[in-house]
Specification:
Chains A, B: One of its GO terms (cellular component) is cytoplasm. The structure is a homodimer. Chain A is mainly alpha-helical and about 250 residues long. The first copy, chain A, is built from eleven helices and three strands. Chain A folds into two domains: about 5-140, Ribonuclease iii, N-terminal Endonuclease Domain, Chain A (Orthogonal Bundle), CATH 1.10.1520.10; about 155-225, 2-Layer Sandwich (Double Stranded RNA Binding Domain).
Chain lengths: ~250, ~250
């Protein structure tokens, strides 16, 4: 296992290479594996991402910060970073996991990446882990829209309409299909003012409403010109009393 | 507001005293308040407690570590520490909150303590926050029983019985009272081998079972001598490959 290139990509050279190997070892391979390191890395990651968001978005309230954080540390975000640094070719998996394509499974890759963060923390302390995480997350953070990331379609549609002083959409179930245990719902989302009527379907009323809201938002955005960016700049501005200290 | 004594008790002297004042300011008092600092402090606290647990319990798996962590960072644990350091006399609250006894409210005290952790982090970085949190949590950690903390009564009873090779308890609903929207359940928990039959009641079947399990465990422990401590020592032992680095 040539780990030089990986250490370059994660921005940390290990004093104790055994820690890195442990972080790359799935439980299916045996002991020691990355399960405890993942526990540790998860909380280090949470802390570093919280710090980044706190400093970057000086005017977002704690609810918005929490929403952004949970979206940046969730499996999909970790999986995308793991793919970027080619983590799958370094994993140690048991026979069965290997055969079933475990080295491409998002959960396994995300866990291993968290394990690496925990391993860096043990190898060289918080500042080293912070440095590596910040470097890997910078491109992610740059692409974050703090006003929309992690919000569901119904919320986004509602906020879009409210910001244009338009009345709220009306949802109604137009049909249900199938037996009780495998029902499908069809829901209409109507915005009469914009002459929009679209359908969404799903295994629950809620899921069908979200689908309809997504289509309605697309239709509404196509029908009306985009608004100028207002709040993005505000959210970015640091405020007095919240100035970051040197880490 | 004399903050000298408080800074002594939390083990950190602020360079920027405005940060400490902000941490002590509830949103009812105005701006700047501690809501954003609380977001930051919550994640710093999570990270430090995870580290303490990882190092202290070298053989606990990640599930047990997560259970312990969530119990140590929850509102009640923070509230008890806040009381120990007399936090309530330093809070800045709005008129209404003051009149309704807000300075004694567990949620307000817990949030302010998290705000203080965030403020220390901004004032002097991670090591300073870690030092303060470790000092405040040391007495808490010493009293933790990793085998029981945060487990519900049914789980504890089941584990107690299994460790003695005794058969599992039997739960049965013996009565329900009241109308549909305000029902009360009465559940019996029976351990025939120990001749134990006790009742528990609650607003749900689940709650009633937990109540009955609690009583059954008390009765069982009274009926049988305590087992020698086995797993506590094992959970404490550090393992190779997990050795902590200097923080």
């Amino acid at each position: 296992m040539d780990l030089d290139r990986l250490q370059q990509l994660i921005g940390h050279r290990f004093d104790d290479a055994a820690l890195l190997r442990q972080a790359l070892t799935h439980r299916s391979f045996g002991q020691p594996n990355n399960e405890r390191l993942e526990f540790l890395g998860d909380s280090v990651l949470n802390c570093v991402v919280a710090t980044m968001l706190y400093r970057h978005f000086g005017r977002l309230d704690e609810g918005d910060l929490s929403r952004l954080r949970s979206n940046l540390v969730k499996q999909q975000a970790l999986y995308e970073i793991a793919q970027r640094i080619g983590l799958s070719e370094h994993l140690q998996l048991g026979e069965g996991e290997l055969r079933s394509g475990g080295h491409r499974r998002p959960s396994i890759l995300a866990d291993a990446l968290e394990g690496i963060f925990g391993a860096i923390f043990l190898d060289a302390g918080f500042p080293a882990a912070e440095k590596a995480i910040v470097a890997l997350y910078e491109p992610v953070l740059r692409s974050v829209d703090p006003l929309t990331l992690g919000k569901d379609a119904k919320t986004l549609l509602q906020e879009w309409l409210q910001s244009r002083k338009l009345p709220l959409p009306v949802y109604s179930v137009v049909a249900t299909h199938g037996a009780a245990h495998s029902q499908m719902f069809e829901v209409e989302c109507a915005i009469p003012k914009l002459q929009i009527r679209v359908l969404g379907s799903g295994a629950s009323r809620r899921a069908a409403e979200q689908g309809a809201a997504r289509r309605a938002l697309e239709a509404a955005q196509a029908a009306m010109p985009p608004e100028r960016k207002r709040s993005r700049a505000r959210a970015d501005a640091p405020v007095r009393g919240d100035a970051p200290a040197a880490a």
